[in-house]
Design brief:
Aconitase, domain 4; 169 residues; 7 strands
């Protein structure tokens, strides 16, 4: 088991169809490129206190179709800069999912129905499971392809390419 692929934090629960404008409102996206400043507004249209409550390593937990909407890379970057360790959802919008991996934000597809706000979770990306420590339950995750795990372990696609110069096919 790769130790860097085991994450631990608290759950912040959201519903279905969380679009990229809910992640970071359009009214901020064109005012600055400073991701730390934008992170102060992460999820504020759904939960105005989220950015002040989230702690490094915590998880966003959602239902279906997380990250739908525009394909801007600011959405996963803002989540990452807010300190979120990973996003867990039943399903993701395809473009958000790939942008998140490329930016080094772990995305975990699993049944999130048994997770409640504040639950302490342990996510083992390499081992393919989520343990809800608070409730004493465990669930399997949809495994990521090896190349995506490698990209995440390097911190994102740019870092991966800097370190490896490309992909072996």
């Amino acid at each position: 088991m790769r130790e860097d692929m085991v994450l631990r934090g608290r759950a912040h629960v959201f519903g279905d169809d969380v679009n990229t404008d809910y992640i970071i409102s359009g009214k901020y996206k064109f005012k600055t490129l400073d991701m730390d400043e934008l992170a102060c507004h992460c999820m504020e249209d759904i939960d105005p206190a989220f950015a002040s409550r989230v702690q490094a390593g915590d998880f966003i937990v959602a239902g279906n179709n997380f990250g739908c909407g525009s394909s801007r890379e600011q959405a996963p970057l803002v989540i990452k800069h807010a300190g979120v360790g990973a996003v867990l959802a039943r399903s993701f919008a395809r473009i958000f999912f790939r942008n998140a991996v490329n930016k080094g934000l772990p995305v975990v597809e699993c049944d999130t129905s048994g997770i409640q706000a504040g639950d302490e979770l342990e996510v083992d990306l390499a081992g393919g499971k989520v343990v809800n420590i608070t409730r004493g339950t465990e669930m399997d995750i949809v495994p990521l392809p090896a190349v995506m795990m490698d990209i995440l372990s390097e911190g994102g696609l740019t870092e991966y390419l800097k370190n490896h110069g490309g992909f072996e096919l």
